[in-house]
């Protein structure tokens, strides 16, 4: 069996705690790998490596940093397939989807290559006689990144490229469910010339996370995962005086108005609800249809969903892979089996699905629930599986009110041909990322990603300008160079104005 160890100080460090977690191939159900789970001592070792490296990396030149990042970008580009294959083997998503994940992560490396522009300061001359004021942004120190299973390469890449480009050093704690991609990302960074200790990968569970949250030498925490853990991370890291951003879970709605192109809306709903088997924080999990077009829309979604081919992620003909674990698959299935009793019409029931030759895989088919009520479990909970709920409303206003009552506010979308309605929606909807005829509005790297309400705890969204701000702190310098001819200012106890 393969063992995934830590990557600390530029080399593989074998796990010393004696604790290992199982990593499963979701398509076969077989345990293929064990991952080392760090002890508090190993947390200390990783943070110490990052702290040591910060002493020189934090003052390295921008040109030295960007030269490494450009080489890193080229290496990642050359290894796209290898990274994607690792993702598929442990997460289960289909290879083309895994390649998409790598591409979206690469965007942030490309953004980091341009850090020279982002880190330019500001200068105001002559704010008073012979007084100038300048603002600069400086690195902070050791950053800890804690990431979820559903994007084992992209979410780490939302964090560390920008953090290290800004001059910080990094300890990544990936999901223990699919840990291998993180090690390859770190090894390639070393190959690109990143000094030892600038990027470390520490594998583990709650013990490792708590060690990082309570470590005095960790200054910044970036977290992406479920809402309950995001809330905990934010509260704990904040109480320990750390800067923290904690991105949480979601229930993303798509509002379909009567004038929408219904074929485009149905295509979008199926792609966004069932892509990656619904294990995306930006998945559309609730379609809110204006009643006059709801029957037609549901029929078109059903027609498309029935044709999706389910199979192992490494089979190029598969469109949807298995779920991450059997336990998660059973939990997802329980929402479908319980839906009818809570008033929903089960249009498609994906429970009990198997794939020939892969009977022990974590399979579930596509489910479509219509007439779902807002007080049902299938609507209230983030199911994180291939289950799409349809809710019906009479008007645009009713739809927006329903959506704004959700505790989550990650992504959202409207499908319409009415520019005025779309503009109103953009202003009225309570979510951090809005799509207009775009179902998964994940912002490009040079904008920032983040939700509202229970989908994000903290003040900064991730990557883009917010990312640069999050990984740096501001300093403002006021300078006076008196002219030798000036009379001495003399003592003045008044507040300077
Ligand atoms: P999770 O919250 O279970 O785990 C995330 C990380 O936290 C992992 O590294 C895990 O080891 C750690 N962790 C888990 N339990 C912990 C505990 N009790 N104490 C300390 N650390 C703990 O999330 P997941 O199941 O890996 O990922 C799926 C979730 O992530 C979904 O809710 C999804 O919406 C969310 N997500 C959000 C975004 C976003 O951008 N908002 C992106 C991707 C995923």
From TrEMBL:
Enzyme class: oxidoreductase
EC number: 1.2.1.27
Organism in which the protein naturally occurs: Streptomyces poriferorum
Domain Aldehyde dehydrogenase positions: 16-475
UniProt xrefs under NCBIfam families: MMSDH (TIGR01722)
InterPro entries the record matches: Ald_DH/histidinol_DH, Ald_DH_C, Ald_DH_CS_CYS, Ald_DH_N, Aldehyde_DH_dom, MeMal-semiAld_DH
The name this protein goes by in its record: methylmalonate-semialdehyde dehydrogenase (CoA acylating)
GO molecular function: methylmalonate-semialdehyde dehydrogenase (acylating, NAD) activity
CDD domains associated with the record: ALDH_F6_MMSDH
Annotated keywords: NAD, Oxidoreductase
